[in-house]
Amino acid sequence: MVWQFASRYFRAKKSTNAINIIAWVSVAAIAIGTGALIVILSVFNGFEGLVKSLYSSFYPAIRIAPASGKTMLLTPEQLQTIRRTPGVAAYSEVVEEKAVLRYGDEPTIAVLKGVDSSYNRVTDVKGNIVRGRFDIGDDVAYRAVLGLELEGALGVDVVHSLVPVTVYVPRRNVNAFVTPEDALNNGVLYPAGTFAIQQEFNSKYVITHIDFLRRLLEMGANEMSALEVAAAPGVNQNELKGRLQRQLGATYKVQTRYEQNQSLYAIMQTEKWAVYVILSFIMIIAAFNMIGSLYMLVIEKEKDITILKAMGARKSLIMRIFLTEGLIIAGIGTLLGFVLGGSFCLLQQYFGIIRLEGTSFLVDAYPVSMHLADFGLVLVTIVVIGLAASWYPARRAAVEAISLKAT
């Protein structure tokens, strides 16, 4: 009965057209706000998915590093234990160190990352080569794969140049020296390829053979900066982290991909929720139209309310009728907003109707990714706002004094 009264009040022609107009303005405001929420949240999802895919190309699923210090030792027995751990697909030994690169006259600071032959099973840097090839060389000639911006800064031509890049790294355990050169070890790398993943990596990293760095840094055969681990498909990274941490103990730090970039993911989530809160406030402002519409409807239906009360209707019934009226307005607006927002996202996803300005982006148009959870979140938000906006007019109708004056 509540639904019948509420739906009839919404559909019926009012004595004053302004009531109908305000009601449909409320529907339109909620529809536009709902569509905007869906679009904005989907765009954030799209960028989040894009960033995660880029970072997953460079960062491994699990990274094992020393709890303190820059290097660690893993014995062959420990490596075998890690290899046999359920959920481990592959691992790669890694050595990282800052270095000065010289190609021509201008020196450039970069991070050298020495990797072994299993590295391409752990990350997808090889799949992001834009010039040359992924080749770290061997003890005959060590080679380098440079980031795109770093290649430009050095002025290297990885395809045609036969001139090597000279590398300088600090010597270990050197406390006194006569000339600055005595504190440095140097070697040469032959450029082989260029990767393009994300500016943070492209401008900083040079990937080469781990033996080259171990020799320059005077490290032992089992010494490394980290062990990067690939998880088998479908394996939960947190569970795999727990297994490896229990095996290795507190002297090693085991991190998932999320923990390696925790600040980045936290910022992305904070931005998304901040935009959600701002748009929700806009929806609250739009709900004032609904308050006005319902309040005018209460005045319009004073006679009906009086008759219902005279027939024995309780205050709670009257209040539910007008609360339902508010939910009908909010519900129609929400459904229209879902259609508008969803349609726009599908058009953007398949046709890229709004494109990114410039030519330095990895994608041409704004990425979008619709998640069912976002639709649920928006629906709950609109229901709460609709109930809150309907409460005062509904209470006003419920406490309306009975008046049976002749008309």
SSE pattern, N- to C-terminal? HHEEHEEEEHEEHEHEEHEHHHHH
Low-confidence stretches: none
What distance separates the N and C termini?
A: 27 Å
The outline comes out as: elongated
Q: What's the main sheet like?
A: 6 strands, mixed, barrel
Query: Level of helix content?
Result: 40-55%
Q: Which class of secondary structure composition applies to the elements?
A: alpha+beta
Query: Please, what is the average pLDDT?
Result: 85
Strand order, biggest sheet?
3-4-9-6-8-7
Please count the beta strands (DSSP E, at least 2 residues each). Answer: 12
Radius of gyration: 32 Å
Q: Determine the strand fraction and express it as a percent band.
A: 15-25%
Helical segment tally? 12
InterPro entries: ABC3_permease_C, Lipoprotein-release_system, MacB_PCD
Membrane topology: Multi-pass membrane protein
Family: Belongs to the ABC-4 integral membrane protein family. LolC/E subfamily.
Domain ABC3 transporter permease C-terminal: 277-397
Q: What's a concise summary of this model?
A:
The radius of gyration is 32 Å and the shape is elongated. The chain is an alpha+beta fold and 407 residues long.
Summarize the structure in words:
- The chain has 407 residues and is of the alpha+beta class.
- It contains 12 helices and 12 strands.
- Strands 3-4-9-6-8-7 form a 6-stranded mixed barrel. It has a two-stranded antiparallel ribbon with strand order 2-10.
- β3 and β4 form a beta hairpin.
- The protein is elongated and about 100 Å long.
- 35% of the residues are buried.
